Amino acid sequence: MKDTVIQLLEAAIAALQAEGVLPQDQAFKLNVDSARDKTHGDFATNIALVTAKAAGKPPRQLADLLIEKLPESSAVAKVEIAGPGFINFFMSDASSFDIVNTVRSAADGFGLNNSGAGESVQIEFVSANPTGPLHVGHGRGAAIGDCLARLLEANGYRVTREFYYNDAGAQIDNLALSVQARIKGISPDDDLWPKDGYRGDYIQDAANAYLEKATVAADDREVTAKGDADDLAAIKDFAVAYLRREQDLDLKAFGVKFDVYFLESSLYNEGKVEKTVEALNANGFTYEKDNALWLKTTEFGDDKDRVMRKSDGGYTYFLPDVAYHLDKWQRGFSTVINEQGADHHSTVTRVRAGLQALKAGIPEGWPDYVLHQMVLVTRSGQEVKLSKRAGSYVTLRDLIDEVGRDATRFFLAARRVDSQLTFDIDLARSQTNENPVYYIQYAHARICSVLRKLQELGVDVNAADFGSDLSGLALDEEREIANQLARYPELIANAARQREPHHLTHYLRELAGLFHTYYNAHKVLIDDTAVRDSRVALYLAVKQVLVNGLDLIGVSAPEEM
């Protein structure tokens, strides 16, 4: 329907340009939006306001002229001018309900487009240090990152999902020392416990597995424990592989898969960190101070210069991050999206500055960042802070075990990424209308129940011509549902472009709400078969969009509840 309105307005603008009312050498961008208040029609445009100056006419007068030049269309019932010059379109019933057949015809493909034209996009998300179980913050990143990847694929992009392991540095040394301490029978309460050691039960589990000379497989490697309590290097290799495997199992339970697992250690092993330093030196953007090597990031918008190599000879996190992103660029990704926690905010400017200093042809503002805020977990109104498994934080696995994959994924993706999220365990477990996951899935299950009853009555809803005649649809509630269905493709496009998956969760809840209200007010299994079949066709379209939308979030659509 929106496309129809745009085409009509384009014809009207062309007609006014031909008459000299609007300049012929000027292009006008059309902005057509769905009307939230249905008393203002189905669609509205501000084109008269933005072109009034070019026409040298008051907006309302220009709006009158545009309406006069609109071609005749059976899709439009009426057109009105509102306020200072907005043009409101009221669509005809036939036009509104055409979307039902469109949805049913497109099926799983409804909402998909090819705007991305196969462009390669990399999304890096989760990227947890292999030092412990995934916490709820990692879970939010996993939900947002995977949903964003699915949205981009729905828009025709070729997406690579990547996980970056910080498997080098002090935190890995602390992991090895912690596991070694447990191997030797030292507990966190002991004075001999490492100063920055990890305390969760998972450390004891890793130690036990090492002593048992277990073999663990982690994406690119298989490590068999030596069982030697004094071989710290062997303990480190095993502990990293063990934690990588544990994280991978958590992600599989969450329904998230990655195409690439990239190891920070490979940047050092393949000399990419040193080559990055050499390039930055050669470009004249480094200097020595206090026995450390600094990068002039202030020349690229940073608030102060940054240390690349510390006085002890070790590199800061900043430098391998620059080397890593250079590697991404060299792999051919023109668009890279980093989904990370808000604590990475300070790294954005310095990484981009480092990339500009390389003079490698990388565009300013590359890569893109999507930074999510923290997650607060509550039960019975009280914050839940600790996990026995992790020792100091709530894990992703804790949530999955408590409320299931579907609720966990939906809740963690349901808010704007830049807002703090409160995960209410009691709400996520509840079977009430207040639980958005239950509410949406129940709408799908209700439709499936009706379809089963029709099947028992011998009605073949899968027949090619079933419900194609929509003349039985005439109610305001039915038009409202149809208009909501028609919004879906645009929403999928906008959510991907804006990097905001939460719009999809809100949309599905609104659609489910419209359906439940309609279901409760109007029977579908009635004697009038024409009306019945039209309503069932509407049901089928709602069902399809619920399935398509839930799939983009990674949530199931159960047929019974």
Structure characterization notes:
Among the domains are: 2-91, 2-Layer Sandwich (Gyrase A, domain 2), CATH 3.30.1360.70; 432-553, Isoleucyl-tRNA Synthetase, Domain 1, CATH 1.10.730. By secondary structure, it is α/β, with parallel strands linked by helices. α2 (47-55) packs across α3 (59-69), α11 (318-330) crosses α12 (345-357) and α13 (396-403) packs across α14 (405-413). It contains 19 helices and 17 strands. A five-stranded parallel sheet has the order 9-6-5-13-14. Strands 1-2-4-3 form a four-stranded antiparallel sheet.
How would you summarize the topology of this molecule?
Layout: H1 2-18, E1 32-34, E2 43-45, H2 47-55, H3 59-69, E3 76-82, E4 86-91, H4 93-106, E5 120-125, H5 136-154, E6 158-165, H6 170-183, H7 201-211, E7 215-218, E8 221-224, H8 232-253, E9 260-263, H9 264-269, H10 272-282, E10 286-289, E11 292-295, E12 306-309, H11 318-330, E13 335-341, H12 345-357, E14 368-372, E15 375-379, E16 382-383, H13 396-403, H14 405-413, E17 421-424, H15 425-429, H16 436-456, H17 476-497, H18 502-521, H19 529-553
Parallel strand pairs: 5-6, 5-13, 6-9, 13-14, 15-17
Antiparallel strand pairs: 1-2, 2-4, 3-4, 7-8, 10-11, 11-12, 15-16
Helix pairs in contact: 1-3, 2-3, 4-17, 4-19, 5-14, 5-17, 6-7, 6-8, 10-11, 11-12, 13-14, 16-18, 16-19, 17-18, 17-19, 18-19
Q: Quick summary of this structure?
A:
With 561 residues, this protein is of the alpha/beta class. It is 48% helix and 14% strand. The chain has helices spanning 2-18, 47-55, 59-69, 93-106, 136-154, 170-183, 201-211, 232-253, 264-269, 272-282, 318-330, 345-357, 396-403, 405-413, 425-429, 436-456, 476-497, 502-521, 529-553; strands spanning 32-34, 43-45, 76-82, 86-91, 120-125, 158-165, 215-218, 221-224, 260-263, 286-289, 292-295, 306-309, 335-341, 368-372, 375-379, 382-383, 421-424.
